[in-house]
Amino acid sequence: MxxxxxxxxxxxxxxxxxxxxxxxxxxxxxxxxxLLVLADGEFCVADIASILEMGxxxxxxxxxxxxxxxxxRSRRNGKNLFYSLADSHVHSIISQGVEHINE
Amino acid sequence: MxxxxxxxxxxxxxxxxxxxxxxxxxxxxxxxxxLLVLADGEFCVADIASILEMGxxxxxxxxxxxxxxxxxRSRRNGKNLFYSLADSHVHSIISQGVEHINE
DNA sequence: TTAACAGTTGAACAATTGTTCAAATGATGG
DNA sequence: CCATCATTTGAACAATTGTTCAACTGTTAA
Lengths: 103, 103
Known about the structure:
2 copies of one chain form a homodimer.
Chain A: H1 13-25, H2 29-38, E1 43-44, H3 45-52, H4 56-68, E2 72-77, E3 80-85, H5 89-101
Antiparallel strand pairs in A: 1-3, 2-3
Helix pairs in contact in A: 3-4
Chain A binds a DNA duplex (30 and 30 nucleotides) through helix 4.
């Protein structure tokens, strides 16, 4: 014990957990690819699956996570559900990631 | 086949994978807490462990991940290794996450 | 050299995650 | 209503992850 611990003010645990959950949404390449597709416009589930060459179910599962995080919206048109980006932050968050890894 | 698929230009798979790996580093609350501690200054491993009330080994494992991602640096002083933030992006990336979850 | 300390490492474990499959839901047009 | 299409859902599985523990490395001071 040479010195008393410096006092550090961390945000409450709950907020840190929410922050970590938020970032882990971007921590999966399928979800990033979905977001990049939707950056180009509105698409229904089957289209996204076809573009990414993946099963419809896998895409649907991921869309649910993105929707819960309020990163995408959906709109029904006939039998189709069209998904689109819900948030303007998405672009800038991804951009900052790109910036970091390209330095 | 009613319509040809719209052409979407995604970044190469390798870059998307690196992006996902980068974001998943922020997807763990221990690592976020370490980064927030280091936002206050330089600390050695045992101090971080004490502040976060965790084992030294757990912190060391996470610091290795943060260092590989070039988010922290270390500097030896005697028996101690002092860690500090390596990158100015860290603040703004976390800030953007906070912004999103508080809207 | 030795003892003590600071930190790292690797194996092990439980917990969480993403994808697949099959079955269910819900909307549409005939 | 019925058949069909688009999507969702839940269970199952393998793969990945974070923490713990014990052993190890490396530095310092005596």
